[in-house]
Amino acid sequence: xxxxxxxxxxxxxIGEMLIQEASFFKxxxxxxxxxxxxxxxxQCFLEEADKKQEEDxxxxxxxxxxxxxxxxxxxxxxxxxxxAQSLRTHSFPERAFKKLTNRYKVGKKVEAIQxxxxxxxxxxxxxxxxxxxxxxxxxxxxxxxxxxxxSTPHAEExxxxxxxxxxxxxVNQLIGRDQRRRVISLVGMGGIGKTTLAKKVYNHTQVVKHxxxxxxxxxxxQDCRPRDVYMQIIKQICTSTxxxxxxxEKLQEHELGAFLHEHLKDNNRYLIVLDDVWSPSxxxxxxxxxxxxxxxxxxxxxxGGKGSRILLTTRYKxxxxxxxxxxxPHEMRLLSxxxxxxxxxxxxxxxxxxxxxxxxxxxLGEKMVDKCNGLPLAIVLLGGLLSKNMSHIEWKKVHxxxxxxxxxxxxxxxxxxxxxxxxIDLPSYLKPCFLHLSLFPEDYVIxxxxxLLLWIAEGFVLEQDQQSMKDTAEIxxxxxxxxxxxxxVRTSVNARVMxxxxxxxxxxxxxxxxxxxxxxxxxxxxxxxxxPSTSSSLFSSKSRRQSIYSDFERYxxxxxxxxxxxxSLLFFNLGGICRISQLDFITKCFKVLRVLDxxxxxxxxxxSVIGELIHLRYLGLRHTGLKMLPLSIGxxxxxxxxxxxxxxxxxxxxxxxxxxxxxxxxxxxEDDPLKIDTVQNLQILSGxxxxxxxxxxxxxxxxxxxxxxxxxxxxxxxxxxSNSIAKLHSSLKSLYLKASDESSIPSLAxxxxxxxxxxxxxxxxxxLTETFQFPLNLSQLTLEACxxxxxxxxxxxxxxxxxxxxxxxGSYLGKEMHVSANGFPRLQILQFLRLKELVLLNILKxxxxxxxxxxxxxxxxxxxxxxxxxxxxxxxxxxxxTPRERLLLGFFLRTKVSFWDLTW
Length: 904
Hints:
This protein is α/β, with parallel strands linked by helices. Strands 11-12-13-15-17-18-19-20-21-22-23-24-25-27-29-31 form a 16-stranded parallel β-sheet. It has a 5-stranded parallel β-sheet with strand order 2-3-6-1-7, sandwiched between helices. A 3-stranded antiparallel β-sheet has the order 8-10-9. Helix 9 (226-237) runs parallel beside helix 11 (253-266) and helix 19 (415-424) packs across helix 23. The longest helix is centred in the first third of the chain and has 31 residues, at 92-122. Mean pLDDT is 81; it is low at 132-138, 289-297, 526-538 and 884-904.
């Protein structure tokens, strides 16, 4: 389905260009239009073909031919527009002649693609590829894989490491006093040990004793068949004769569900394990029994109030929450370094002490275990493989090519095969986003803001009604996180993901699949020891994306003319200083680039010819040290994202880039005029100065959702500034005001912005805005350096929808704060940071009834009323100043530990 999605994006883009660049297509529009229709027609067959290509190399080649045809069409059209644009500077006779020549050439190329598509289409039926909706059932290879992976509770793993605490908690949940039927979910990525843990608790003595009469284990799999699952359970909990079994096998699915329901209802209590559930809809199918009346639904697994339990394993958090909203899923964690070594040692060295082997063997083992990053399946397979041969030579072979060995070891149950199931299960719109992760270096911490903007620039995120593309991209990210394909590194105080990373084996899978789909050429660590020559043979002529991990100078010295249709070029961890001449190759060789990210590369200047990259959608220049941008930046009319900081001056040409959506220009050195009110598609504007802002007509920025204004503001007229914000009433959702030096933030009435839900203010305020002047829907408020001398709580506590309040250094200079009985009716998160003068926070009974998280960093502040915060579940102590305070805090927590669970 990755090919289907990539082709879909390309076809959509060709359609957009036919509309947006209509003036360029005079003379060839008919041909290009027909090509667009032919490509759209081919989409109808790709979904079915994508399913078949896993097992049929002929279909795989057929799909590859379509992909290449679409890429060729895209290349031809992009180059045609580029050439047509360049002719505008030529004299009229020369321009007219070259226009005719270009149209003739592109017409011939389009004809060739259409003939190729016709040939591809003619071979479709011979390969048995049908329209969408006429698909076949599960493939033979998929069915074989499911049979090989089918789990049973009897084949319990004897070597289990790192699951003792988890097993103890789960056993207590299974045999606990709660009499309602509960669904307990084990959630985690493939190979993390969900089934192993489930077997351990299923066979635990206390569990067997607690459920003496009715226990069953059923394997579900991606191809969920409720009838088969019901039969697995019935055969384990019913004593049936051969004739009764034969009779049951003739029953329809809903009849089997009804039979199972009645049998479970008659038992005292039951335990059912559903191993490997893949989707919420699968759970719904399994948990509901139908009858001849389609409106009559009842649970197959009855809640008789007897303490019955269902234990399910799944890779997806969404399945767990769907199965039982009242139960907190048990999220499996990767093993620690020590636990990983313990597991490996017991598998590789069996009962023999690892210390008795050669030190270099142990050293190799430790390095290989580190590469497993705590994934139990990889460690178990690795240990089993190495236990067969204890020679240093064999261990070194495995060390040097671990991925290949682990892919082979265990064959159909190898690491990559198990993880590949998660890839196969991805919906088509998520597959390109997953493949894109292959571009990032190993163990790289990825900024989610940057990742989402890259996905948008690549065209992976389609515009939807009533929802911005950035919001849609964030939904995609959260789906991949919930599927355990992306790991969260850091979240904001309101739980939004700020940074993430990808497990090494998931990254290996992404790289493998990306190569299959020609998604990128090569991820390159340019190392003179690995690549002694400067040959361009490193790169495929079909490369669409490249990421470079080191040594910019060496990469720049390679000939790049073999990859003229590169669309994305990303640099990582390079450092050093780059001369302006060293960037020339980018504009000379990669003329149809859409994404160029130079973040972290020391750049003195950007060549003015960058303005010739008219297809560029994303330009990343953050942390480059660049102080000036050329005026030619205004020629990048398709640019959607410009991300740069610490410029001395932003050239006043942004107004020309009418497709700009995301503009980051924080920490400008000078406050020169900057016209932006013509950029009517702008959704995020971060870093404009107060003076620049009020010189623009903000009423034209009808799409602006997020605004950050910074700099000096003492000359800003308050009424004028307040009115400029009020004009954003239809779109503004987030506002950040940051004053420099000692200047004061202009007071403003924000009640006219009904959609404003997030407000950050950093800077001196003469007084806090009255409650009625705050927007009604404000849910997040951060104050810093405001120097308020009056207690802000009497005003802030009346905000009806406030969920998060952060009071940071210098926001309040007083000694006491008081929250009244009905204050903060919906507040969930409260944060105090570096409020040095504050000695007392008094919370009256009935205040903050929903407060769940409290953060502070100074134990000297006395807090009264904590005992009344019944929903408080997490206290974060962010720092301590002295050992004595640590001791006092420890004593305090011991006396309060019964009131909340503590998170460090």
